[in-house]
Design a protein that fits this description.
- The chain is an alpha+beta fold and about 250 residues long.
- The protein is built from six helices and eleven strands.
- The N terminus is likely disordered.
């Protein structure tokens, strides 16, 4: 009679499976986190060891957040109001102006006429964008903390001026500060906004980041002293063309 249950030795013995042979020809091992190890002879070529470390999810997340923050901060510079710099400012800065020493001297002479006015007298100050920009570059630049020949100024809109340059206290980064003329004999220019350019992209305004005006205090503390105390701009008339002459009526108390 056939043995239907089999012998004890048959029941306890393991199947006849050949032993595992280690892979001596090499291979590719994947590890958590995206690491890849390649060892041995792969595709007919001996490779000692190559490790390719992929970006961890946290690193990717930080990179995305950093880029998004830069884009948001740059976009914020184009909103008007508060600490933000309006898009009109960047359009004005892109305008070509012929800054030269002769124009700076002309602006200096006109300011001296105003500051020699008699008490109670109102004197018209007529000047162009090239004169103001030249005055900032060649006369005020060092006092404002700008690198040599980097200072400039632009008319943004009637009563609003943008002053820009490479600020030495910030490692020569480009900065721009906007000032508004106000009828105040002790502070004729009020600081409106400030921005610093962290990334420079040719033919683009990308990289400007709005900052607190205190960060550029060496600039903001000097520009409001354009006139001596006791002189107040009481009105501003601007030519209709962009960058056209301004007529500022200055009253001496």
């Amino acid at each position: 009679m056939p043995d239907q249950t089999g012998s004890a030795s048959d029941k306890n013995s393991s199947p006849n499976i050949p032993p595992a042979v280690p892979n001596v020809s090499g291979g590719i091992d994947l590890h958590p986190g995206g690491d890849v190890n390649i060892t041995g002879d792969v595709a007919g070529r001996d490779v000692t060891k190559v490790t390719n470390v992929g970006m961890q999810p946290e690193a990717v997340r930080r990179l995305v957040i950093t880029v998004a923050a830069m884009v948001f901060a740059t976009a914020a510079c184009f909103f008007t109001g508060g600490i933000f710099v309006g898009s009109k400012v960047f359009a004005a800065l892109d305008r070509n102006v012929n800054s030269r020493q002769e124009a700076a001297d002309s602006m200096q002479a006109k300011l001296e006429v105003v500051q020699n006015a008699q008490p109670g007298q109102t004197v018209p100050l007529i000047f162009g964008e090239d004169e103001l920009s030249s005055y900032v570059r060649y006369v005020l630049g060092d006092h404002l903390g700008f690198s040599p020949d980097s200072g400039r100024a632009r008319f943004v809109e009637p009563g609003l001026i943008a002053v820009a340059g490479n600020l030495k206290s910030l490692g020569n980064l480009p900065v721009v500060v906007t000032f508004k003329l106000q009828n105040d004999p002790n502070q004729q220019l009020e600081v409106e906004s400030a921005a610093v350019r962290l990334v420079s992209v040719p033919n683009s305004n990308f990289g400007w980041v709005a900052v607190p005006t205190g960060l550029v205090s060496s600039l903001t503390n000097q520009v409001p002293t354009l006139f001596r105390p006791g002189y107040a701009p009481v009105s501003v008339q601007a030519a209709p063309a962009p960058g056209g002459d301004w007529t500022v009526s200055v009253h001496r108390q």
